[in-house]
């Protein structure tokens, strides 16, 4: 997993899972705490995430809200869009361009 960017936009790539969660949490919390306005997470380079990785994203979302900021997801890969829809988190998280639920492939 790698994260690069500034306090306004971060690109998350690789695998966000139990092995990388602690490092990702540290970087995301720092970006939330040190910035202002929306924090955009570009997930277009993310290969996969597990429940722990999704928990890191949700934790960053809650922390951003407490700091008066908004976490915005950009470039969410289709398989991760399906997970967000299945867990109904697409209704809670800000997703740039939204998720066209009807256009997602059925599994």
From TrEMBL:
Record GO terms (molecular function): anti-sigma factor antagonist activity
Q: One short Pfam family name for this protein?
A: STAS_2
User: Domain STAS, which positions?
Assistant: 1-107
CDD domains the record matches: STAS_anti-anti-sigma_factors
The name under which this protein is listed is Anti-anti-sigma factor
**What organism does the UniProt record list as the source?**
Streptomyces caeruleatus
């Amino acid at each position: 997993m790698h994260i690069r960017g500034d306090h306004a936009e971060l690109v998350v790539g690789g695998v966000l899972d139990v092995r990388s969660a602690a490092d990702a949490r540290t970087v995301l919390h720092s970006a939330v705490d040190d910035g202002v306005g929306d924090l955009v997470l570009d997930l277009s380079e993310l290969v996969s995430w597990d429940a722990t990785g999704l928990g890191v994203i949700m934790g960053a979302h809650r922390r951003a809200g407490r700091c008066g900021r908004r976490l915005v997801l950009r470039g969410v890969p289709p398989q991760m869009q399906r997970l967000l829809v299945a867990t109904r988190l697409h209704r809670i998280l800000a997703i740039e361009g939204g998720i066209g639920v009807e256009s997602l492939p059925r599994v």
